[in-house]
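Run log, item B.
One chain of 317 residues. Sequence copied directly from the ordering sheet:
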Amino acid sequence: MSSFADPVEMTREYGPDGVAVARFRLRAHPPFDTPGLFRYFETHAVPGLEAWAGPEFTRAMRLPLGMATATLAPAGTPDTPGVLVTARLTSADDLPELIRRVRRLCDLDARPDVIDGALAEDPVLAPAVRRTPGVRIPGSPDPHETLFRTVLGQQISIAAARTVQGRLAVALGDPLPAALAGEVTHVFPTAERIAARGREVLRGPARRIDSMMLVADALASGTVRVDEAADGAELRRSLVALPGIGPWTADYLAMRVLRDTDVLLATDLVVRQAAARLGLPTAAVPLAARGGAWSPWRSYATLHLWRTITDPVPELR
């Protein structure tokens, strides 16, 4: 018996180069803010690792048995939304894991009927929910990559962050096999590779480089665990113990990696700007208290607040 998460309309074949190619559609619960999600992919695509050729988004993945690329495009109708996926894999046995990661990346298991219904009960937030129903929080296809990209993106523009992240990906990431490579050429480097060679290629403020190296050493040694099964409280404690990693980064990782639906980034500048626009408290402590009404969906409330200022592109890093 199939489940909602299973792919539909799947075709499979092998190319002359031995690469497994699968095409299928993944379903999402309606409503689905496809434009907002794909604009995020477009504006944050890291050169070498990801590519945007509207309306398609492609990214490389390191999977348990090999490497792959996944090309995503909006699919379906407003009543039956989803994502069309073309996967190219060096090992066909990695397909179930690729599907799982794409579902997380696109937050396809979110239930916007429940989330939007709860948030819309707040008259202050209701207009934002009506304007953009079905928002999705981009998930993490690689927890270590997400942490490194977040550290590199601190206190710089998205465009600058993409440049720095792309330079690191191409310099230290493993190249894709020729049969997979195109505009996307590399997978993101491992923590071990960054720990060993990061100082050779990282540029920018010394403090940011030091933070990157401390994070790489902690991940490579196992001192800090950042994965989907990590305990949320322990993840926060271990991350903020590292110099250069603050509560914002730890909470942001909980949203992206752990899929914690109940994180309000009350110290975030854009969130506080949105709060001021909506007549909410702007200081972090009273804003967090006011946001208690949005539990257990405060992560989605955070996204709606971002969109209030940045619409149509959420300023996720």
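Observations after the first pass:
- Residues 270 and 306 are 6 Å apart (CA to CA).
- The radius of gyration is 19 Å.
Flagged for discussion on Thursday.
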